Amino acid sequence: MGLRRNARTTREAWRHYAVTGALPESVLREPIERAWRRCHQVGASPFVVRARELPSAQSAALFERERDLLDAARPYMQALSEAAGTARHAAMLGDRNAAVLDVVGDEESVRGKQRVPGPGALLSEAEAGANGIGSPLAEGGYIELVGPEHFIEGFHPFTCQGLPLYGPEGETVGVLSTSVRRVEASHRIREILTCAAHGIEAELMRRRLSDDLHALLTSRDDEARLLDRLQQDIVQLQGAARLRLETAIRLARSDLRPAALRLVAAATDLIRRFQRQSHLWREIATATPSAPGLLDLGDETEAVGALLTTEATVRGLHVEVRREVPIRVHADPGELRRRLFRAFLRAFDLTTRGHTVRAELITDEESDLGVVRFPATPEATLAIPRRSHIVPMQAGPPEAEGR
């Protein structure tokens, strides 16, 4: 009843706007009101029925330019379509400018008389009003539009939800969206949509890692080979997440039962772990200087220790990080992580199989330093300046890290 009442109120607000051009006050949900205001400001028409499409030559060039995104997204779009089951639906992929790149769904939704806009259609808010492709990009986050919450009347039969996609450098690279005829179907696949979006981002990161590793391995030193093993370990997290998501989708075909939700949550957690470790791997593997800043030494130490968990296991070692109070240090983030990485490796080399590599965090008040101490292998100890007036640390060879 609440959904019907809200839809009726929204439809009345849309009709009032269509006749008078006056935006409703305190009637629409906040993100929808913001979207309508943006549409109004750019002069979008509430009566345009068909989205404008790129000429075929421009579409072909766009698809070729976005080949990596298309390839990364395809299995996840197929997964979204499978999760929707027999309901009328479409999974849609857009580029960073809200041009449709790909659509996967049932025959009627993709190729029927009332099909959703296809590849090459332009769905920015200026072109197509508030919608599941253009609005997430304009809003900078997830948005759901139910029926008449769409700015253009021709989209009122649909319930759409979408969210932006981000590349390895944090840049917006596109948008993933679903379009269904029944709002209940959108509720069933919402969590899978979010997980699929993160999965696409993880796949883009995996491809970047592969490129980075190819360049790195030309050096053929011991550290590069270790980073190769770590990269393979990280990528396994993404594969495990895909398996969990696929299992969840099989459960979700009729209804998103609690077991399926738990699997989606587990897949999402694995993808987040993959993303964290991938970013850390790149920081360590690529010696690109960045601006020094204040960092939590305990967080950084735990992150590097977690990255090396498999390496420690292979060596028959256990890693433990102990910290009692937060310790803030001033450092170049990448350089600090590289130093911690090499300190752990030095401690590994000096520790007998079957023992624990324990890192303890303490403060040297007299020298104003944050210290990572390895009690069993003091040669690996690091001391990091805590105050901002201290000059940034200089990189040193692995054998000098403990001095």
Structural descriptors:
single chain, 403 residues, alpha+beta, Heat Shock Protein 90, five-stranded antiparallel beta sheet, four-stranded mixed beta sheet, 11 strands, 50% helix, disordered C terminus
Textual characterization of the structure:
The termini are far apart. This protein has helices at 2-20, 30-42, 56-65, 67-84, 107-111, 125-128, 134-139, 183-216, 222-252, 258-285, 297-307, 309-314, 333-350, and strands at 89-95, 100-105, 143-146, 159-166, 172-180, 293-296, 318-322, 328-331, 356-364, 369-373, 382-385. The chain is α+β, with helices and mostly antiparallel strands and 403 residues long. It has 13 helices and eleven strands.
Distance between the termini: 70 Å
Which consecutive residue ranges, at least 5 long each, have pLDDT under 50? 388-403
Helix/strand order: HHHHEEHHHEEEHHHEHHEEHEEE
**Strands side by side in the biggest sheet:** 2-1-5-4-3
What's the mean pLDDT score?
Answer: 88
What would you report as the Rg, rounded to the nearest angstrom? 26 Å
In helices, the fraction of residues equals: 40-55%
CATH architecture of the domain at 293-400: 2-Layer Sandwich
Quick rundown:
This protein is of the alpha+beta class and 403 residues long.
Helices and strands in order:
Layout: H1 2-20, H2 30-42, H3 56-65, H4 67-84, E1 89-95, E2 100-105, H5 107-111, H6 125-128, H7 134-139, E3 143-146, E4 159-166, E5 172-180, H8 183-216, H9 222-252, H10 258-285, E6 293-296, H11 297-307, H12 309-314, E7 318-322, E8 328-331, H13 333-350, E9 356-364, E10 369-373, E11 382-385
Parallel strand pairs: 7-9
Antiparallel strand pairs: 1-2, 1-5, 3-4, 4-5, 6-8, 9-10, 10-11
Helix pairs in contact: 4-8, 4-9, 8-9, 8-10, 9-10, 10-13, 11-13
